[in-house]
Specification:
Blueprint (H helix, E strand, L loop, with lengths): L10 H11 L4 H13 L1 H13 L1 H21 L2
Length: 76
């Protein structure tokens, strides 16, 4: 179930949300940002699921190692 919430933001923030996010996507954008701060159990469960996914972990490790190699090459 969804609940309606009225918030007050600076005019520039309001205009930026409309310009960058789009008029009908602002609620979902804000909910996505706020959810981890108010539902820590959801976040913890998500991290556990991610850690249990061996394929995803392998790809993340390869990406991180590649990034470290790129940084090491760039610092010479």
């Amino acid at each position: 179930m969804h609940k309606k919430l009225t918030i007050t933001v600076d005019e520039k923030v309001y205009q930026g949300l409309h310009r960058v996010i789009g008029r009908h996507k602002i609620s979902q954008f804000i909910e996505t940002l706020v959810r981890p701060h108010v539902h820590s159990e959801d976040l913890l469960e998500a991290y556990k699921a991610m850690g249990a996914d061996e394929q995803r972990e392998r790809e993340a490790r390869e990406w991180a190692e590649g990034t470290l190699r790129d940084v090491a090459r760039g610092s010479r």
